Amino acid sequence: xxxxxxxxxxxxxxxxxxxxxxxxxxxxxxxxxxxxxxxxxxxxxxxxxxxxxxxxxxxxxxxxxxxxxxxxxxxxxxxxxxxxxxxxxxxxxxxxxxxxxxxxxxxxxxxxxxxxxxxxxxxxxxxxxxxxxxxxxxxxxxxxxxxxxxxxxxxxxxxxxxxxxxxxxxxxxxxxxxxxxxxxxxxxxxxxxxxxxxxxxxxxxxxxxxxxxxxxxxxxxxxxxxxxxxxxxxxxxxxxxxxxxxxxxxxxxxxxxxxxxxxxxxxxxxxxxxxxxxxxxxxxxxxxxxxxxxxxxxxxxxxxxxxxxxxxxxxxxxxxxxxxxxxxxxxxxxxxxxxxxxxxxxxxxxxxxxxxxxxxxxxxxxxxxxxxxxxxxxxxxxxxxxxxxxxxxxxxxxxxxxxxxxxxxxxxxxxxxxxxxxxxxxxxxxxxxxxxxxxxxxxxxxxxxxxxxxxxxxxxxxxxxxxxxxxxxxxxxxxxxxxxxxxxxxxxxxxxxxxxxxxxxxxxxxxxxxxxxxxxxxxxxxxxxxxxxxxxxxxxxxxxxxxxxxxxxxxxxxxxxxxxxxxxxxxxxxxxxxxxxxxxxxxxxxxxxxxxxxxxxxxxxxxxxxxxxxxxxxxxxxxxxxxxxxxxxxxxxxxxxx
Length: 642
Fold this sequence. Notes:
single chain; 642 residues; alpha+beta; 26% strand
């Protein structure tokens, strides 16, 4: 969540009210934000472990109380003191929601875009003008802070959108947005403002000079491009080099009366949201509050022909709807449609209308509320307007008994028992390489059975695993320094994913399914085949599956009467262990003649199903995973045991 720092006195002056710290904390909770910290500039400097100041420097800092307030990540209108105080005043009923509008229909300026060039790096631009604005030091600081907040959040560190603001009285239109070679761009930047640079030299300066370290993170955004974006006026004076820096010639000062705002972007939707946020927050300081002057944006092709155009800002006002019953149900309240309609005014969603015999609530979404996208968002704001503390706790109307999902319950019980047997549980990655999932195990590549990533980040994340064994073996590989003298035991109970075009989870066929599996490995001075075999038998005993008589007969233990008397087993459930047949999928993974299948018989079915396999790993498999000790593994499908 973004954190907004505001001086307590300034905030209360904007609100026209005063609160104790406790009362303001309660107000923040009711409004859906959080008062995170109460501090001051001096206190922050004293606590800082990264910036060390002298006692004189600390003493010079302000000791005024500062509120640090956490706001929702999608509430861009709360990122400055203007928007925060305005929203709280509307919530408290001290102010009516403002109506934002264009001061005139005719654009006051034109931005010409050289489309063939700008398409190669930042294709979009939107603009607006704030006329007859009055700045104070406090307002100016807030104006700059809002740009920084938007750059960090919605603009994704200027990669999606970059904001430029200019004193319109120092420049002349029409303005031009172009992309040029760095050597062809020459201007005096805001930082440093004592000399002129061409764009190439300026980027090198920002990368190397300590005084410009705050701009260094943005250099890579454009440095490798053959053309750099640049905005200039009709006299070819550079206004800005987005997304890095503005020109010193058009910089904003406290005496600026008309502000030209331009936002270059790779995402036009986000650019419009950023521009709307800037103008709606600070148009209240214009001579005619909440009015903005429009700018015409024209895209030209290589021949100078206009191929596209639009007028900005959009100041988008739209309607969204939600069912009254849906809102009541989701919040857990029962209020009338008319009451719900009134509550919308507290959260800037008015005027609201009731449709279809008062069953549908249609709200008006202002340009400041780009976060309203779904009926759930409307219901959330109605809940805030109603008051969280006013929601009455009620006993549910229906009696239901909750319970753990049977498959999860089985997994939890097995984890405890396998842990008691001396095995250590691991949790490995769900993604792996094709090599680890198939080739390293000496299993045939069946890519049609594995869910593949279309654009994997690297070779280690090509497919979703179809077996748990690669993760266990790589864990052994990375723990070679551990002692193996008494054996090294690991296990995992997790999901694998298999392609299954017939498996339907919801109303839509997803083409894949999760399968819960149990896998274990033993590595030590000996192969440990009998240890893994014993774990298989123990798991079957715990899941109350009895061994078949033919399997019991192979035991070296002559008298099975005593064991059979106390064995708890489910009726009709039996298992046996058989040698792995020739041609089995995992045949080459195991040492020849040292592998087996676990065969399961379920009640009411004469068909036997393959529950899993276990055996001694082939030396080539051990070599592929760089394991120095003989090892035995097992893997079972837990879902078949339910």
